[in-house]
Amino acid sequence: MKPGYVRRFSKSERAIHWVNALGFFFLLATGLILYVPRLSIEVGRRQFIQEIHFWGGVGWVASLLIVAVLGDRRGLLRTARELDVFEREDVNWVLGRRPRDQARFNAGQKLNAALNAAFMVLFLVSGLLLWFGEQDTRFRFASTVLLHDGLLYASLALLLGHLYLSLIHPTTRHALRGMVLGNVREDWARRHHARWDTGE
Question: Number of structural domains, the chain?
Answer without folding.
Answer: 1
